[in-house]
């Protein structure tokens, strides 16, 4: 998976205290990538855009 053009955005829920943070790259055509901002060279979770939208919609109910 080529993430060289990924534009990472930190979650607005992460706050500014530097704690547990999630970054999402949703500018890619076929994948939405998610990573831990404290480990930017670490593992990345990859979702289809449809799966990511479903996840986001589901979390709005909590």
Index terms:
23% strand, single chain, flat, 18% helix, alpha+beta, 1 helix, 62 residues, four-stranded antiparallel beta sheet, DUF397 domain-containing protein
Record the SSE blueprint.
Elements: E1 9-10, E2 22-25, E3 32-36, E4 45-47, H1 49-59
Antiparallel strand pairs: 1-2, 2-3, 3-4
Instruction: Give the % helix.
Output: 10-25%
How would a crystallographer describe the biggest sheet?
Answer: 4 strands, antiparallel
**H and E order:** EEEEH
Q: Work out the strand percent.
A: 15-25%
Instruction: Count structural domains.
Output: 1
Query: How would you write the strand order of the largest sheet?
Result: 1-2-3-4
Mean pLDDT: 90
Q: Please state the structural category.
A: alpha+beta
Poorly predicted residue ranges: none
Number of strands: 4
Number of helical segments with 4 or more residues? 1
Q: What radius of gyration results from the CA coordinates?
A: 12 Å
Shape summary: flat
Distance between the termini: 32 Å
Domain DUF397: 6-60
Organism: Micromonospora haikouensis
InterPro entries: DUF397
Protein name: DUF397 domain-containing protein
Describe this structure in words.
Residues 6-60 form the DUF397 domain. The chain is of the alpha+beta class. The protein is built from 1 helix and 4 strands, in the order ββββα. A hairpin with an 8-residue loop joins strand 3 and strand 4 (45-47).
Summarize the structure.
This protein has 62 residues and is an alpha+beta fold. Helix content is 18%, strand content 23%.
């Amino acid at each position: 998976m080529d993430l060289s053009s990924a534009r990472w955005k930190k979650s607005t829920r992460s706050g500014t205290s530097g704690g547990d943070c999630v970054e999402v790259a949703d500018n890619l055509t076929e994948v939405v990538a998610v990573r831990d901002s404290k480990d930017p060279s670490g593992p990345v979770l990859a979702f289809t855009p449809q799966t990511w939208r479903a996840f986001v919609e589901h979390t709005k109910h909590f």
